[in-house]
Amino acid sequence: MEGHPFRQSLLFGSTVVAAIILLLNFVFMAFQLRQSDIAASQSILAQRILLCASGENCFKRVKTQKSPPEVSEKCGFCESRMLDGLRLLVEGGVVAGEDVPGIENHEIIILLNSMISLWQARENIQPETPPHLSLELLFRQKAQSLSDALAFRVMAIGTRVWVAFWLMLVLAAFLLFSGLSLRRIFHTRERDYLRDKYSLVLGNQLLTGFPEAIILLDKSLSLQFVNRFAERYFGCLSNFSQGLNFGHFCQDQSVLGRLRGSLREVAQSSPEKVFAEPDEVSLSLEDGRKCLVVIQWYQLYLVEQNYLLGVIYNPEEDRRKELNIEIAQGQLRELSNNLFKAQDDERRHLADELHDGLCQSLAVLKMQVSGVERRIETVEVKEECRKARQFIAQIIEDVRRLSHDLSPVILDDLGLSDALSHLVNNFTALQNLKASVAVPDIDDFFSREAARNIYRIAQEAINNVGKHAKASLVVLEAEILSDAVRFSIKDDGVGFDADAMKRGRPGTGLGLASMAERVRLLKGDFVIVSKPNKGCEVKFTLPKK
Fold first, then answer.
1. Domain check: are 309 and 335 in the same one?
2. What is the pLDDT of residue 73?
3. Are residues 351 and 262 in the same domain?
4. Strands (E), 191-314
5. Do 370 and 395 belong to one domain?
6. Considering all CA atoms of the chain, what is the largest pairwise distance in Å, rounded to the nearest integer?
7. Domain-located, residue 163
8. What total number of domains does the chain contain?
9. Last residue of a domain, which of 284, 313, 342?
10. Are residues 308 and 323 located together in one domain of the fold?
11. For residue 98, what pLDDT is reported?
12. Among residues 438, 443, 439, which one has the least CA distance to residue 412?
């Protein structure tokens, strides 16, 4: 329905008409409900009059031997209120505390007036006489007719109320359906309008901000669009009163002939390459310079016309970009190397401070406690001094181990192979783990700086085993290849999702990044193989010096 304006107008007009009818129907139903209440009150009053006239409730029959069974003596209430009830139906008044208007139906009013006349005539005739009984019987018949008429009137009004109610439901359902349909139509129109609007704006912005130089040619090879990157070759089109022809910049007639021929062959289809290989085109710039570029042409069919979209690449700029990337990567490697050197220097300085300062102070404190222990005779105090001396000795050992971890002096004293073996054996002894070390003599294959980085990589990997792996076995292996050395550090712990780490998900930590960066500085390859509950293996291959 969204695509047919006549149907949309018909639906909108039907909705307006249905809304008006619904409003009128609501007013009509409210009026009929009020009339139903009035008619019900009048019907109840007519039924009371009928009961009084028939003597079923309000008459007390007095059977005597002289009077026939039909003769009855009426109660005082019926005698005094009968005329009031009839006049109330004619003129209106208060019934059960509610103001009830009089009956407006002409036939019923005639019936009520005749009943009033009969009742007055009955009062002028002696009771228990045949005329009196005839008038009473006639009054009863008219009272029955009045009750039936008012009851039928109540039923008729109730029927109109129900008809109005169901009509209101139908109209409400129609309005709901038409409202949803109109909302969908307006929403679709708004969405299409915004889509078209933003598509034009977005297309212009995308072409203008495209990271390559692009041009658009029509069938006469006139420039129809030039983005900001292509302005360096063709200038800004707004500076020219007439559209420039591509032949003004390219004098190669063979290229121009191929482009004209391709434009004649372009059909209404999706964009695709016109030529399999890009064209090398020599452009004559506005300042007289020559520029050799590579242009890849694509066919376009826009607004029932054929166009050529050219994407321009400059080989010189590409080489310049690659050179800049290489320079930036070299600067980054140098910065990372300097950062690691500064970090190692700081660790060495901190290790010296711990070893020469804090360890010496703790050793002096230990000797002082020993001296105090020798001068004390109380057994309990001597035991406390002994425990304090053992605690200080443990602190000294922890500080020395921390100092060695910060600055591995063993690396300078024993070499890389023995330092790696000592690192694993010392770690597994402290953590109560099993160790397997297979490291051949590789000291001559790496410089002192490279050996320090290899030690730090292994130290970080083994520390990660102690922090996270919950392993029972640590294996360190090194294999000498023809021009490189392959290292492997693996455990049988809980492992982790290595694929998530490669995708850069949160929780991968800086330790793995630090190891990878050190391997990259040494121009090696770094790989982590791990799966949950299947352990972890850190592998890196480094070239020999």
1. no
2. 46
3. no
4. 213-217, 223-226, 272-273, 279-284, 290-302, 305-313
5. yes
6. 153
7. yes
8. 4
9. 313
10. no
11. 67
12. 443
Q: Round to whole Å and give the CA distance between 401 and 408.
A: 10
Instruction: Please state which of the ranges 172-186, 223-237, 240-254, 260-274 shows the lowest mean pLDDT.
Output: 260-274
Where does a domain end: 372, 407, 442?
A: 407
DSSP run (H or E) holding 115: helix 106-123
- Give the per-residue SS3 of 123-135: HCCCCCCHHHHHH
pLDDT tens digits, one per residue of 199-233:
556 656 666 667 778 888 888 888 878 888 888 78
Domain that holds residue 375: 315-407
The C-alpha atoms of residue 361 and residue 367 are separated, in whole angstroms, by: 10
**Least reliable range by pLDDT among 70-79, 148-157, 359-368, 447-456:** 70-79
Average pLDDT for 502-531: 77
* CATH number of the domain enclosing 498: 3.30.565.10
Residues 161 and 14 in one domain: yes
Distance of CA 256 to the CA centre of its chain: 52
Q: Strands 484-491, 473-480: parallel, antiparallel or unpaired by DSSP?
A: antiparallel
Write the Ramachandran bin of 496: left for phi over 0, alpha for psi from -120 to 50, otherwise beta.
beta
Q: What is the pLDDT of residue 525?
A: 92
Alpha-carbon separation of residue 347 from 69, 184, 341, 467, 544 (angstroms):
131, 69, 10, 21, 27
Highest mean pLDDT among 77-91, 304-318, 320-334, 418-432: 418-432
Residues 432 and 517 in one domain: yes
For 19-43, letters b (16+ CB in 10 Å) and e give eebbeebeebbeebbebbebbbbbb
**How much is the mean pLDDT over the chain?**
76
Instruction: Give the integer Cα–Cα distance in Å for 125 and 135.
Output: 9
